[in-house]
Amino acid sequence: MPSSACSFSNSPATGKTGQMKTDQPPQLHMQYIVDLEVYSLLLRPGDADTEVIQYKRSEYTPAAAADLFEQIRAELPRTHPSRTDTESIHSATLVFVYMLATTQLRTMRCVDAAGEHWFARDADSGVVYDFGAQEHANTEAVHAHGEAIAAGGIDSCPLEASFDLLERVQPSAQRYMVDELITLGTLETSEFLTQKKAMDYLYQRGVFGKL
């Protein structure tokens, strides 16, 4: 099967075609995103309240993906001049898919003798976006054996580290707490989200208020 490749400076991102199709349902962690007309909300439920980050998503194009990849990579801490820790790569991969408005990208994980490897794959083109490509002894094998998973924990709730990274990548994002527990099961009945959707509706019709 032919390979496709996409390079971002020193961190190559390679992939194979024909792996997946975008008719699959959204991965669980992507269901914590609520897209409105003006902005998007990423929800991180706690025990009795919810942390929210209000931000802008970009349409997914090769140019937008390449630019975002470099922005995120520039914000990653280094345990060595050429190395990044697994937790940071995990968070970076999630932020990458959170910030691009598309159903094509799938969050992938491969577990081998060296540990966990996280990356994103375009389900249509097969192109892989891998912030940890330099960490793999065999990058092609990691990508070939990666599996699309529900990332972020048992219920795929967004990671705190991903919120921290998203703020650094997009300084205009707003992060705040909501005194309401919002879960995937209460998205349709949430009072907070109902109010946000109503304000978004009015904004789109020229009634400009604080969003």
Walkthrough of the structure:
The chain is built from 5 helices and 12 strands. The chain is α+β, with helices and mostly antiparallel strands and 211 residues long. A 4-stranded antiparallel β-sheet has the order 3-4-5-12, covered by helices on one side. The longest helix has 14 residues, at 191-204. It has one domain (3-184). It is globular and about 50 Å long. The protein has helices at residues 62-74, 86-98, 139-145, 160-169, 191-204; strands spanning 3-8, 11-16, 33-35, 40-45, 50-55, 58-59, 100-101, 105-112, 115-122, 128-129, 147-148, 174-178.
Distance between the termini: 48 Å
For the sheet with most strands, the description reads: 4 strands, antiparallel
Using DSSP, what is the number of strands?
12
| Low confidence ranges | 1-20
Rg over CA atoms: 18 Å
Question: How many domain regions?
Answer: 1
